[in-house]
């Protein structure tokens, strides 16, 4: 699609925002030219990445969840039942008011999230202890009338790829374990995207509307801001009381069930491409790359045997389950390198007459840029093992980059200074007033209390100066 | 979920409408109790079937199409551009008029179909001959404000599983070939669901709003009505003119492109379960059955070795890629048979102490009800081959049932009589007036001209009596 426009370099990644926008177009992830603010179009290449990413989350969830699908449209009366929940969403909800040319009797909300669509059905489905735990999920489009600046994959009016799980449990403790399990599952999911995430318990004033508490996972973006890329909410029995979800306990009494919900979205893809990409374009972890290996035949003089050798190589790699593309188009080699580097293909193999004579190929790694000659003997095994190595390399590099950008800080001035680069880790007395004052003084939010908090450490709250044994992350956020 | 309610028999299939509704609940396909008319909830089991069905269509399309995703919301000005198209849909469109508590500047339509969402982008993407053919598809939710009687999977206000493809071609002829190709692809798809379909060219007054012509595939339902389960539209350059989709031809002139679109929906699942199901519940083609084999250990006296042998059998079948469930629950065997028959599991294996001694199992086929003892030697190969046989059996039976219910008719009275049982095949002079008169006299619609029309046959138009060499299908339709 309009190749000629695109062979220009990206802006340097230091200019993160420009780089990101240009990468989405040139890497063929999203087209931002759809004529409604905050709505974007997935290019087929981007959608292919999306498929691979969502296959991973499906595989992880399918072990003990079931996939389902609930309606998009929620009647106003159901939507308005849970008071805290409405407060959290009322300014963001799109309303359908007309069907054809007639006004509807009951207004319909486009789900901003599906608690109020799902829980009236859970009321019907949960009867006894034997119906729990119930663990369902769906992957759906959801809608938020965002008034803030919108940004593809990050802040959307149509979240096209919201994976939301909703579970029901007999006890508060079981639900709490499920929240922990969800965070482990998301951490594992992000590990498979080579994205390190930080899990923390959100401060009470930043939890999900209607929840007892929220634990979230955040990715640290190249510009030092954090992106919330997963949340898990303990809903207590708050929604169960609103939607009358009860079961008969051992004594024959009807008691309320406990619930959790947890979600991720295409922000997973935003974090992955932002963290790994470079000035030449996408750098995709092999697990999700639509093309894992591109083969470039060097054939400017149409030498015999090269194309056939490339076809054989392709077939051999494909037989091992590797996603391979052979680019035998008429473009110049340089244009081909540009194109497949932009699209983040982890491994490039070039094969010309001289290589063929040596029973070898030239291999270029997208992540490090290294080139080396490799033998065609055992090339399948070598490429498979290299793909694994590339994945680990991406993860380790990203992890080191996060570690380098978490700063233990003791006073407001240092916090402010370090926030330009990354995350401040600060002691906090736990008092809400101090927390809010801290946020105000710094001009950034408390992300939350790390779930892997070190036991027994202590310091001083930078606001009130009292002793504190709790640390919090503070960050500029998307 | 509320097992106790469900061990009652279905109404007989002769009472198709009641049978269908009850099957959806007891077979755990859809829950119809969602509190908005025309919107339904997929049970996890039903959604599992949906996954398998849509994996098939994806595999077929992925050979030369690419999957993508466009926004749900279409701004009023784009939606209103194509006059015929609007006329076809204006009474059926849901409108979003408010974001939060504020009215929107531009009303947004929930897509009833995506031409007007996609084609403004195609204008940007199509520049030259080299950009064509462009063949994209998406699987999305679409919305129709249906005023007719709604019915799960068949007539919905939220079509949850609309697969729509949109292609662009350089010539009218290329687009026509693509329409034919789409019909072949759909026929193949339905073949994999063991559903025979009839393809016919819709009369001009029943084509897609804005198309040059429409070819559709219909399934013949148990009650003798036809269900339209796939459509392919030749859009000519009608939409290209509206949305300014042009390319530079060999002479350097900007000319309009030609387009097609084609779609299927969850009606594919409706037809499949309706055609194959029986008084005991679902009968699922093995390719889409979430459970292909259920193993029932006969263990009422806890005999040694039976459970282990069942586990071994399960592992052996799974290793061959078969989806197996072992039901070692405490329920009575009768309750287990009821449950798994209702869910359409193609093969049941019962294994008790006596079987074990004989190195055998009792095998029951869901489609024919036949039971026979089978040796545990080679059981994997035998089951695999039986699954294939079951699929063919379902298809052949369904095909014979369609053939028996197509009646060649010469006069209005016979047509009317035969329509109670199935489809009338009738000569038609091709005159629109006669066609409309025919529909009026009969009280049923002309489905279309069969695409496999026999060459050279001839008869008389039952309305005007003139010679005719075109036959049409007439049917009562959903």
From TrEMBL, chains A, B:
GO molecular function, one term: proline-tRNA ligase activity
Organism: Methanolobus mangrovi
SUPFAM superfamilies recorded: C-terminal domain of ProRS, Class II aaRS ABD-related, Class II aaRS and biotin synthetases
Protein name: Proline--tRNA ligase
Catalytic activity from the UniProt record: tRNA(Pro) + L-proline + ATP = L-prolyl-tRNA(Pro) + AMP + diphosphate
Family, as annotated: Belongs to the class-II aminoacyl-tRNA synthetase family. ProS type 3 subfamily.
Residues annotated as domain Aminoacyl-transfer RNA synthetases class-II family profile: 38-285
Enzyme class: ligase
Major site of localization recorded for this protein: cytoplasm
CDD domains hit by this protein: ProRS_anticodon_zinc (cd00862), ProRS_core_arch_euk (cd00778)
Domains: entry comment: Consists of three domains: the N-terminal catalytic domain, the anticodon-binding domain and the C-terminal extension.
Record's function text: Catalyzes the attachment of proline to tRNA(Pro) in a two-step reaction: proline is first activated by ATP to form Pro-AMP and then transferred to the acceptor end of tRNA(Pro).
GO biological process entries: prolyl-tRNA aminoacylation
UniProt signal peptide: none
Complex formation: Homodimer.
Places the protein is found: Cytoplasm
